[in-house]
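Folds abound. A case:
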Amino acid sequence: MEKLFHLKEHGTNVKTEILAGITTFLAMAYILAVNPAILGQAHMSHQGVFLATAISAGAASIFMGLMANYPVSLAPGMGVNALFTYTIVGQMGLSPEGALACVFVSGIIFVIITVTNIRRMIINAIPVQLKLAIGAGIGFFVAFVGLKNAGIVVASESTFVSLGNFKNPTVLLALFGIIITLVLLVKNKPAAVFYGLIITAVVGVVFGSFFGLKGMPQLPSKLVSVNFDFSLVGAFVRGFNEMFTHPQCIVAIFSLLFVDFFDTAGTLVAVASKADLIDENGELVNVERALLADAVGTVFGSMIGTSTVTSFVESTSGVGVGGRTGLTACTTGICFLLTVFFYPVLSMITDAVTAPALVIVGILMASQLKDIKWDNLIFAASGFVTIIFMILGYSISNGIALGFIVYVISMIATGQAKDINKMVWVLFLLFIAYFAFLI
C-alpha cells in the first residue's frame, strides 16, 4: 500500500483512507438511484442504466486512484445526465443510442486534448484567485444541493426559495444529521462526517422501520440482487449513423464537452485544494493523470450504457474525513462495484442521510474565501460572480464561465490586458460564444 499510494508522504494511513473512501461512496450513492431515474425518461432500461452506473463508477474511481493517486471518485454526472435526457434526446431528437455515441465521441476528444496537454494548460491557466473562488463556490453549491435534496429549502413562487416543512420527518432527520455531524466536527472527532452519516442512517431506519414514519430510511427486504441487465452494453455503436445524419450532433457533442470539461476542472481544483495537492506555483500536482482518468471514464461509461462519467465534487466528503491518496478513490470504486450485488441495502441511504455530509463539507470548502484578495476589485468581482452564479444558476460550469468573463473584462478595463494568459483569452472567447449560443 505504501509503495503504491505513498501514504506517509501524504500524512495518512490505511484506516483513514478506507473510512474516507466509504464516506465518499455514501455521499455519492444517490447517483445509483437518480441516474437510472433520469436516463429512464430517455426510454433506457432502468436496470441497464443502474448496472452501467455502478460498473462505470467503480472502474473509473479505481482507475483514478491507481493512475493519478488522487482521492477523487467518479460516476455518471448530475446535470450532464439531465442534458443527455431532456436536451439531447428530448429536444434535439437523438435516439438514446445516438446520444450515447455523442458521449463516446466527446470522451475521445477529452482523451486527445488530455494526452496533448491542452486540458492541463487550460486548468493551470485559471488564475489562483479564481481557483479559490471556484472551490468556495462549489462548497456553497454542494451545501445547497444537500439542503434542497433533504427538503430543508424548497422552491417558492413568491420568494424563489424558502424553508421547507419542519414538521416533515425527513427534514427533521436531515437537520438532526447536520447537528450531530457538526457537534462531532467541532469536538475534533476523527471521521466526523462518516460517523454522522452512519448515526443519521441508523436513526432514520429506527423511526422508519419500527415507528412507521413515511419517507424515512427502511430496512431492505433483501440484501442481494442478481438481476443484471446488459442490454445497454455496446448500444452506442448503433447510434453512430446519427453522427452523419442528424444536424444537432455537433451541438450535442460541444455541449457535453463544455459541461463536463469545466465541471471536472472545478471539481479537481476544489478537491486538490482541500487535499493539499496544489504546488507552490498554484498548479495541480500530477493533474495530467487525473484528467486522463476522467476522460477514459467517460469513454468507458458510454460503451456500457450511461451518460458522461465525471469527477464528483462529493469526493470532498472523503477529503474532509482525511482522505489524501488514491486509496480513497479505490475504496469508493470497490464499494460501487459491490453495489451490483447489494443494491437493496442502499435503500437506507436517502437524501436526508447524505444531506448532512454535503452541508458540512460545504462549510469546510467555504473556508477558502479567506484567501481571496477581497481588497482587489478584479478578484473580488470575478470571485463573487463565480460563486453567486454557481448557486443561483445551479451550475458549476456556468459559474466558472461567467467568473472568467468578468475577470477578463475587469483586467481590460484596468489596462492589464497584456498580463492575461493566452489560454485565458481563448477561454474568454469560447465562453462568450457559448453564452451567445445558449441565449
About this structure: DSSP finds 19 helices and four strands in the chain. The CA atoms of residues 77 and 310 lie 6 Å apart. The two ends are 51 Å apart (CA to CA). The mean pLDDT is 89.
